[in-house]
TrEMBL record:
<comment type="pathway">
    <text>Cofactor biosynthesis; adenosylcobalamin biosynthesis.</text>
</comment>
<keyword id="KW-0169">Cobalamin biosynthesis</keyword>
<comment type="function">
    <text>Converts cobyric acid to cobinamide by the addition of aminopropanol on the F carboxylic group.</text>
</comment>
<keyword id="KW-0472">Membrane</keyword>
<dbReference type="Pfam" id="PF03186">
    <property type="entry name" value="CobD_Cbib"/>
</dbReference>
<dbReference type="GO" id="GO:0048472">
    <property type="term" value="F:threonine-phosphate decarboxylase activity"/>
</dbReference>
<dbReference type="GO" id="GO:0009236">
    <property type="term" value="P:cobalamin biosynthetic process"/>
</dbReference>
<feature type="transmembrane region" description="Helical">
    <location>
        <begin position="294"/>
        <end position="314"/>
    </location>
</feature>
<comment type="similarity">
    <text>Belongs to the CobD/CbiB family.</text>
</comment>
<protein>
    <recommendedName>
        <fullName>Cobalamin biosynthesis protein CobD</fullName>
    </recommendedName>
</protein>
<dbReference type="InterPro" id="IPR004485">
    <property type="entry name" value="Cobalamin_biosynth_CobD/CbiB"/>
</dbReference>
<keyword id="KW-1133">Transmembrane helix</keyword>
<dbReference type="GO" id="GO:0005886">
    <property type="term" value="C:plasma membrane"/>
</dbReference>
<dbReference type="GO" id="GO:0015420">
    <property type="term" value="F:ABC-type vitamin B12 transporter activity"/>
</dbReference>
<keyword id="KW-0812">Transmembrane</keyword>
<keyword id="KW-1003">Cell membrane</keyword>
Length: 318
């Protein structure tokens, strides 16, 4: 069996486990990694880039070593290799929970329960929900669904295909560190620099794969591929993130909505550029975004596994 075939089987099994089970309700390894990172921060924190580099290197180095050890323990047995990657991929993915939470928030907005919607928003993004009305909540949730379709679904699948167990674990760790310390707040402007830059590098290719899949899947939710491409090309570069802007612009164009504008965080207000055309999104648009996210995730899993199988078939044919 070509080495790429167990990897393809493991990747698809991990994806299907996420679709069937979602995130573990208790004892999620990502939460454990976050707790370890927070504990280490009490020792490594200094208001400097060098301290942030050390923080990231220690934590991601540990994940790389652990992932390599797990892959080595699986040995050359195809079933063991597939099982190890399936477990790592499931741990790294958050696609089902993302789409489900987006739909739940849309339901709360339809019911007029803004307090409950504000309580749910922090599970999607780090914005301050206290100042947001219904339109602000819908926009914040849709932007988060768009960005995290890449971060929590497409990127783990890409890194599982490219780097196996170490690759997908290091990616998930990098993304978690960026969410913890990658903010432009007074505390993290320098210390979080390394986490933010590493996350930008790790997401560069996956974000563009995700945007391309948004274009391809747009008609399935009544969207426009041409408008998605136009918004991606015209608006993405104006976003402060080199990757989030690509995916958010593609979603905005595909759904025919306008994203961006004043964006409140706990550390202060940021003014984001406009992405896409049309009206600001509402609950119906958020529900369509959740469906589009689910379709893109499925397409990404099929694409990643298909490429691995094609590579394996090519090697066998030589």
């Amino acid at each position: 069996m070509p080495a790429t075939r167990p990897r393809a089987i493991g990747l698809l099994t991990g994806y299907l486990a996420d679709r069937a089970l979602g995130d573990p309700r208790r004892g999620h390894p990502v939460a454990g990694f976050g707790a370890a990172a927070a504990g280490l921060e009490t020792l490594t924190y200094r208001d400097s880039r060098g301290a942030g580099v050390l923080h990231v290197a220690v934590l991601l180095g540990a994940l790389a070593a652990g992932g390599a050890a797990a892959e080595s323990a699986a040995g050359r047995r195809p079933a063991g290799a597939a099982a190890a990657l399936a477990a790592a991929t499931w741990v790294a993915l958050g696609g089902r929970s993302l789409a489900r939470t987006g739909t739940q928030l849309a339901d709360l907005l339809d019911a007029g329960d803004l307090d409950a919607a504000r309580g749910l928003l922090p599970s999607l993004c780090g914005r301050d929900p206290a100042t947001l009305d219904a339109d602000g909540l819908a926009r914040a949730a849709l932007e988060s669904v768009a960005e995290n379709t890449s971060d929590a679904a497409v990127a783990p699948l890409v890194w599982a295909a490219v780097g196996g167990v170490p690759g997908v674990l290091v990616y998930r760790g990098a993304n978690t560190l960026d969410a913890m310390v990658g903010y432009r707040s007074p505390r993290y402007t320098r210390f979080g620099w390394a986490a933010a830059r590493f996350d930008d590098l790790a997401n560069y290719l996956p974000a563009r794969v995700c945007a391309a899949l948004v274009v391809a899947c747009a008609p399935a939710v009544g969207g426009s591929p041409a408008a998605a491409i136009r918004a991606w090309r015209r608006d993405a570069a104006r976003h402060p993130s080199p990757n989030a802007g690509v995916v958010e612009a593609a979603f905005a164009g595909a759904l025919g909505v306008r994203l961006g504008g004043p964006t409140p965080y706990h550390h202060g207000l940021e003014i984001r550029p406009t992405l896409g055309d049309g009206d600001p999104p509402g609950s119906a648009d958020l529900r369509r975004a959740a469906r589009l996210s689910t379709l893109v995730q499925c397409a990404a899993a099929a694409l990643a596994a298909g490429l691995l199988l094609a590579i394996g078939a090519g090697r066998t044919g030589r």
